[in-house]
Amino acid sequence: MSAELRVLYVDDEPDIREVACMALELDPTIECRGAGSGPDAMAILAEGAWPADVVLLDVMMPGKDGPAVLAELRARGFKMPVVFITARAQSHELARFVKYGAAGVITKPFDPMTLALELKAVLARAK
Amino acid sequence: MSGFDERYEALKARFVTRCAGDLPVLERALEGGVDAETLRITVHRLSGAAGTFGYHDLSRLAGVVDDRLVEGKAVSKAELTPLVEAVQVLTRS
Hints:
The structure holds 2 protein chains of 2 kinds. By secondary structure, chain A is an alpha/beta fold. Chain A has helices spanning 14-24, 38-47, 66-75, 91-99, 115-126; strands spanning 5-10, 30-35, 54-58, 82-86, 104-107. Chain A has 5 helices and 5 strands. Chain A has a 5-stranded parallel sheet, with helices on both faces. Chain B has a single domain, classed as Four Helix Bundle (Hemerythrin (Met), subunit A), CATH 1.20.120. Helix content of chain B is 82%, strand content 0%. Chain B has helices at 3-30, 36-52, 56-70, 77-92.
C-alpha cells in the first residue's frame, strides 16, 4: 500500500534525521525519507521517482540554511508545503518563517511519539 | 522491546558518544579557548538533539547558551559551567 503522506525530512544531524523518520513512520500513513542537506533534498526531488508531499526542513544547517533551501524549492517550481523545524523559535522568528512561505514551524526538541501528529496538525492549520 | 525502541536506544547511545566528543570543546570554551561560532554550533546541536533523546535538562541548559550566542552576546563561565557539568555527568556515568 502506498503512503498517504510522503515526508522528506532535511536535517544535517544524521541521528535526529533517523529518529525523525522512525517517529514519523510510526504513523502507518506516512513514509519518510531523509536528506542531509539542501542539495541532497533537491537531488531527491529533482529525480522525481519519489514525489514528496511535504518537506520538513531544519532551519540551521551548514551551507544552505532552511530559508535558502525553501527559496530554491520555490524557484525550481516545487509547490509542496514546507514546514520548518528548529530549536530557535521565538515569536518574531516564527513570523519570519511564515513570511518566507513556510506552512508552519515545529520546534526542536520534538517528541518522537507525537511528531507525526504535530506535523499533521501544522498541515491542517495551513489549509 | 519493539523495533522502534531498539533503534531509538541505539541512536540514544550514539548521541551520548557524540556528546563525549563535544565535551573537550565545551571544556575549552570554559577557558575561553573556543570561538563563538564553534561553540554556537555545538550547543545548538545539543539543544535540539538532547531533548529528543529525553535529556531535557541538558537540552534546556544548551538552549540558554545557544540563545545568548545567537543574540551575539558573550557567554559567561557561570552560564556555561552547568552545561559542561551536565555533559560530564551524562558521558561519564
